[in-house]
Design a protein that fits this description.
2 copies of one chain form a homodimer.
Chain A lengths: L13 H8 L2 H12 L4 E2 L5 E2 L2 E2 L2 H13 L3 E6 L2 E6 L1 H7 L3 H25 L1
Antiparallel strand pairs in A: 1-5, 2-3, 4-5
Helix pairs in contact in A: 1-3
The structure holds a DNA duplex.
GO molecular function (chains A, B): DNA-binding transcription factor activity
InterPro entries (chains A, B): ArsR-like_HTH, HTH_ArsR_DNA-bd_dom, WH-like_DNA-bd_sf, WH_DNA-bd_sf
Pfam families (chains A, B): HTH_20
Chain lengths: ~120, ~120
DNA sequence: CCCATAGTTCGGAACTTCGGAACTATGGGA
DNA sequence: TCCCATAGTTCCGAAGTTCCGAACTATGGG
């Protein structure tokens, strides 16, 4: 458990980032870590929207984000603090993260309405 | 087979785009369609780098790109012509596609050297 | 030493992806 | 018209991935 693996920024691959953020829960977790002034415990994110994420799935989501090079996790006492690696990733792949985060943000407005429409059928 | 389904641009979801482009073969296919002046037959893309892609996998890749809203396919005689929906997607999610395409492009330089280094061990 | 809390690992069920073989659709001769 | 060639699609089994509950490990506080 101890040695949390973080890839060096030059080993970060675009496909890993896209794969990590192609899951809306993971994208939401990542967006929260970014917005939250860059440090957040895993358990603070146990829900996305109104959906509860089981601990084991959460643990896996964090692992995927970590191994994609998107976040850095450190043990602080009994909990894990997660910081986004935004600046590093932005330097390596300029425009990638803003594009993705904006896409999800602009979609968030459309999504509830879609859900209503779907429910109305 | 006949009715090729294309989502309306407002139904296109960011996670579908990320998922479609998280596969390097599909990203390469999409980049080629874009660069090639926007129209290309499926079979013109039967290889990515030096790797041959079987017909059935190719067909599936095109389907994923189509259903993600990234390309538009039309039958022209016996073949399918594929055009990228870049402008529409760019209008809906500004910066998303350039960010992704640039990330892959800037990684392409790093990749062969990585391969050499790995081979040298 | 024991307990509580925070995460990780394990393992099986459900889902996805890959690719070969067989199939369908379209157009061009003869 | 019939047959052939070409371009894609569908089917299906093997291999891989994801999800999540249960059991486990690590850390710190009585």
């Amino acid at each position: 458990m101890r040695p949390l693996f973080h890839p060096a920024i030059e080993d970060v691959r675009p496909e890993a980032i896209l794969h990590a953020l192609a899951d809306p829960s993971r994208a939401a977790i990542f967006a929260t870590i970014m917005r939250a002034g860059c440090v957040e415990a895993c358990s603070a994110l146990a829900a996305v929207g109104d959906r509860v994420i089981p601990k084991s799935s959460l643990s896996n989501h964090f692992k995927v984000l970590r191994e994609a090079g998107l976040i850095r996790s450190e043990r602080h006492g009994v909990e894990l603090r997660n910081a986004s690696r935004w600046a590093e990733v932005e330097a390596r792949f300029p425009g990638l993260l803003p594009g993705i985060i904006n896409a999800y943000a602009s979609d968030a407005g459309a999504c509830p309405r879609d859900a209503e429409r779907a429910a109305a059928r």
